[in-house]
Amino acid sequence: MKHFIASALAILTLAGCSSATTPLRQSAQITEYSGGEIDNTKTSLFWLTERFDSPESSSDDVIFKDKTWYKSHYTWDSDNLREMSRTGERLSNSGDLIPFQMTLRFSGTGEAVYQRLRINGKVMPMRKQQIDDVKQQASDLIAKGKNQQEQGLELIQGYWEEGAFVTCEGRTFTSIEFKDQLPSFVIDRLIDEDHFVAFIGEYKAKKIVVDKMLMLKNGGYECIERPSSQS
Question: Angle at the Cα of 89 (from 103 to 125), degrees rounded to 5?
């Protein structure tokens, strides 16, 4: 686990140096956001890249309470969704988890000019409602990402180890403030065991302020990477 964190830090350090010395990325005004939410049915993590205040790409990683899940990558042209690729697992009629892959490409007017859905290896037709649902999910991700960014919130992941929180980027914090009171059993788990934690919050000086906890897993759980078009 410590090796993983160190490797992630090295990668991010190199990426930071590269972007700082690349005039194209500076002049292109690229901004990246991240966030997440949790409700009674699912936990969602999401990422958004904007160029000149318009979405360029976005991604999400969604886990449902029934153990189904999906990861998506969206490509945008200004405010128009142009392509979506998604992989995951859904429930079969018998209740088993089976894999699926979905790809959609859209015209400039929003028409789905290419669609492919493969469930458990079989190509299946897509209904108009399924396509409309994907388009709505993509739009909701943009709205939620911008809203959380305006509040100063972002996705923070890391490991709680021996009384300190180490982010997936390798930063260490000994002071964490929770806006909402945590249940006592959650506090006991954080104190007594090593855990992977994901939440939305903000960095303030030498502490982290947690707005909402999204995930609490055992210490062997790996940091969640942003899904790409190849995921």
Answer: 45
Please give the model's pTM, rounded to 2 decimal places: 0.82
At residue 136, does pLDDT exceed 50? yes
Least reliable range by pLDDT among 45-54, 66-75, 179-188, 192-201: 179-188
Alpha-carbon span 212 to 77, nearest angstrom: 32
Q: Under 8 Å CB-to-CB from 166, ≥6 apart: which residues? A: 5, 158, 159, 172, 173
Q: What are phi and psi of 127, to 5 degrees?
A: -85, 155
Q: Do 125 and 11 contact (CB within 8 A), yes or no?
A: no
> Average pLDDT of 73-77?
97
H or E segment at 27?
A: helix 23-27
- What burial class does residue 226 get, using C-beta atoms within 10 Å of its C-beta: 0-12 exposed, 13-18 middle, 19+ buried? buried
Contacts of 47 (CB under 8 A, 6+ apart): 32, 33, 34, 58, 59, 60, 145, 155, 226
Which run of H or E residues covers position 195?
Answer: strand 195-204
CB 159 within 8 A of CB 221: no
**Closest-CA residue to 222 (of 35, 61, 47):** 61
pLDDT tens per residue across span 6-42: 333 222 222 233 333 322 233 468 899 999 999 999 9
SS (H, E, C) 128-173: HHHHHHHHHHHHHHHHHHHHHHHCCCEEEEEEEECCEEEECCCCEE
Instruction: Say if strands 30-38 and 54-64 run parallel, antiparallel, or are unpaired.
Output: unpaired
3-state DSSP call for residue 7?
helix
